[in-house]
Design goal:
With 324 residues, the chain is of the alpha/beta class. The protein has two domains: 6-217, Spore Coat Polysaccharide Biosynthesis Protein SpsA, Chain A (Alpha-Beta Complex); 226-323, no CATH class. It has helices at 16-29, 50-60, 75-84, 104-114, 149-156, 170-176, 193-202, 226-242, 247-270, 281-284, 292-303, 306-323, and strands spanning 6-12, 37-43, 65-68, 90-93, 99-100, 119-127, 145-147, 166-169, 206-217. Strands 1, 2, 3, 4, 5, 6, 7, 8 and 9 form a nine-stranded mixed beta sheet that branches.
């Protein structure tokens, strides 16, 4: 019997209903793949009925590994403790409120078996509420597109932060980054960049599945400073790992400044979507103050009245579409 190829990692906290749907789906999708796929669930001391959901799942998949933290360690450490237990070549961390579409897992495993891959990005279909793995557009035959490092950064851009979209070659990560600590960016709400970005900068086999094979829940997060995370922490991490003037950094920052951050600032200012902590928006995007685009886009979006802010948002989106 061959060694397992992929570990699915599921960190979870107080989302028993979402977790139940995900684990029930995986129990079905794993049939016939038991010798190829392992599964780790990291329960971060949930206070709802998550333990009951996990016990029910173990009756279907008794070989799954369950990590029960005795106290809430925060999402970053829960992520990292799960990864510490991965023994397979690849791992795929799936958010407890996201879901692989029906039939996607088997095809993804087949692709990993047949192709040399460092990072595989899985495109997602976003929806406010997921009811089953058959929601959204059905998938057909999945195929990968091979990209250079710079093209991968251009196409994936800010979504390098999206854990459910990334299948990572853990063996290659450690092989190319001796002494790497997955906990390097603990406390930033972007600890996952501690393994994604180093592999992006040192690896050579980057691929995307353009067909949307993951169902992702929109608007189901919060509890942290949204603009600070993406306008402050993200660029600092990019500069430290990828270099301030690298093509990778420039591609991702272009999307951040012109497309992603203006929308986040709008959400923070006008309370439309999400449940996030209040923050000082000027300080939150401080790493971009030396950029002309900061004064043309971010600074006006932070300070202008709602009507004029809407105009700046329209301009920035049009500019990004034309020159991305």
């Amino acid at each position: 019997m061959s060694s397992p190829l992929l570990t699915i990692v599921i960190p979870t906290y107080n989302r028993a209903e979402c977790l139940s749907l995900l684990l029930t789906t995986l129990a079905l999708e794993l049939r016939g793949l038991e010798d190829k796929v392992e599964l780790i669930v990291g329960n971060n001391a949930s206070t709802d009925h998550t333990p009951i959901v996990i016990e029910a799942f173990l009756k279907l998949c008794p070989n799954a590994q369950i990590l029960h933290n005795s106290e809430n360690l925060g999402p970053d450490e829960n992520f990292c403790r799960c990864i510490d237990q991965v023994k397979t070549r690849f791992f795929w961390m799936i958010g407890d409120d996201d879901l692989p579409k029906s039939g996607a897992l088997r095809q993804i495993v087949n692709l990993l078996e047949c192709e040399d891959t460092d990072i595989l990005y899985l495109s997602s279909e976003w929806m406010p509420h997921i009811t089953s793995s058959d929601d959204g557009e059905p998938i057909t035959t999945l195929a990968t597109i091979v990209l250079s490092r710079e093209d991968f950064a251009q196409q994936v851009n800010v979504w390098v932060t999206f854990i459910s979209g990334m299948v990572v070659n853990l063996e290659r990560l450690y092989e190319l980054n001796s002494g790497l600590s997955t906990r390097r960016f603990t406390g930033t709400s972007l600890v996952q960049l501690g393994w994604i970005l180093p592999l992006l900068m040192t690896g050579s086999h980057f691929k995307i599945i353009e067909q949307r094979c993951i169902l992702a829940t929109s608007g189901n997060t919060g509890g942290y400073k949204l603009v600070t995370t993406f306008g402050g922490n993200f660029p600092v991490i990019l500069h430290s790992v990828c270099g301030k003037n690298s093509a990778v950094t420039k591609q991702i920052e272009k999307h951040l400044i012109f497309s992603y951050l203006p929308g986040l600032i709008w959400i923070s200012r006008f309370g439309e979507g999400g449940i996030f902590m209040s923050e000082n928006l000027i300080k939150s995007v401080a790493p971009f103050r030396g950029y002309i685009s900061y004064w043309l886009i971010l600074f006006p979006v932070i300070l202008l009245p709602k009507f004029l802010t809407r105009c700046v948002l329209f301009f920035s989106r049009m500019y990004f579409k034309l020159f991305k």
